[in-house]
Design brief:
The protein is α/β, with parallel strands linked by helices and about 350 residues long. It contains 12 helices and 12 strands. It has 2 domains: about 180 residues, Glycogen Phosphorylase B (Rossmann fold), CATH 3.40.50.2000; about 150 residues, Rossmann fold. Helix 1 packs across helix 12 and helix 9 packs across helix 11. The longest helix has 17 residues. It is globular and about 65 Å long.
Length: about 350
């Protein structure tokens, strides 16, 4: 039997999150032929013309939808044309759309009918949002649909839970008795500004905190007096890994409240896998991946965050024991993307090479 041909659509490139590439490699490890479509592709005139026309329309309180997606040269139409060109060349059995940027229902149906695509698969990887109808509307466009969280749909909806958490590859087991690595930074937070993150960060502004993420230096956000805590608006790849390894404490604050909306971000796997200590906001799903208090530490309020930061800064042995336990869990118990994509293939009924 021929290997399944999978076209993965998401963000690809050196300056973006690597989820798409990890999934593509996961399908390849499962014996599939894979093509990668960068869904961030934009029309050459977008930056110089259409973006500004849409902004002007909004400023004049006029409808901006035409400039965003309605005209023949819009990003949406341009993206759909580029996607169809790749589908026509590659002829995939499966179109795997990781739901960042979208395509229209008409485009999906045309691709399926015209090019004989056996399965269209959507994977919603956006944050959970209250009263979000887009998820329920989007899932009905695809033959199979997955979501990284459990919020906003029921068992009667055609959506299956598939968390995004996973590892590109398992790390080595930490060496027993090895000395703790040198940590040159005290406390690190990676994440763009949000109202919720801002509330937690303000509990730590008198401490040696390093922030990486966009939006923190915008007007009416973090005061100019604290801008020196912002190392960069963006870091990618190895630079992010090195930053995590250099930190005594890595803080993870989700932009939504995990006590109200479900879902976890990728740092729950990424940070322990690097042998770093993770202090994250508490969420019910954590127990599916790690053990609180043993492999990571958690907090629920800004006050508790500050209390635990001060505690773990003062107790290196305890902190490093948690970091080693987290790395041990990553090395032995966390799912890789190769395993995750094999599960996707099984769920949609696609035979893999050798089966």
């Amino acid at each position: 039997m021929a290997s399944p041909r999978i076209l993965v659509s998401y963000f690809f490139g050196p300056r973006t999150i690597p989820l798409g590439e990890f999934c593509a490699q996961g399908f390849e490890a499962a014996g599939c032929e894979v093509a990668r479509f960068n869904s961030q592709v934009s029309h050459p005139l977008e930056h110089y013309c259409f973006k500004w026309l849409a902004k002007l329309a909004r400023g004049l309180r006029l409808p901006d939808r035409y400039f965003v997606e309605g005209h023949p040269w819009s990003n949406l139409r341009y993206r759909e044309r580029c996607l169809e060109e790749m589908v026509a060349r590659f002829r995939p059995d499966v179109l795997f759309m990781i739901r960042g940027n979208s395509v229209s229902a008409e485009c999906l149906q045309r691709l399926k009918n015209r090019y004989g695509i056996a399965h269209t698969v959507g994977w919603w990887v956006k944050d959970p949002r209250p009263n979000d109808r887009q998820l329920l509307e989007d899932c009905r466009l695809y033959d199979h649909y997955f979501c990284i969280h459990r919020h906003g749909y029921s068992e009667s909806d055609p959506i299956r839970y598939l968390p995004a958490l996973g590892l590109e590859r398992r790390p080595p087991l930490p060496l027993e008795g090895a000395p703790a690595p040198a940590r040159s930074r005290e406390v690190v937070l990676v994440g763009g500004w949000s109202k919720r993150r801002d509330a937690f960060v303000r509990a730590l502004l008198d401490l040696p905190l390093t922030i990486v993420g966009p939006g923190w230096k915008k007007r009416k956000r973090l005061e100019v007096a604290h801008w020196d805590k912002v190392l960069a608006s963006q870091l990618w790849g190895k630079d992010v890994d090195d930053l995590y390894r250099s930190a005594k404490i890595v803080i993870n604050v989700t932009s939504w409240d995990p006590a109200v909306l479900t879902g976890l971000n990728l740092r729950v796997c990424d940070v322990p896998a690097l042998g770093a200590f993770l202090l994250t906001d508490d969420a019910l799903e954590l127990e599916e991946f790690v053990t609180r208090g043993t492999e990571i530490a958690t907090f629920s309020t800004p006050e508790e965050l500050r209390e635990k930061v001060l505690h773990y800064l003062a107790h290196e042995d305890e902190r490093e024991a948690v970091a080693r336990a987290g790395q041990r869990r990553a090395a032995t118990g966390m799912e890789t993307y190769a395993e995750k994509m094999a599960r996707v293939l099984d769920a949609i009924g696609m035979a893999r090479e050798g089966q």
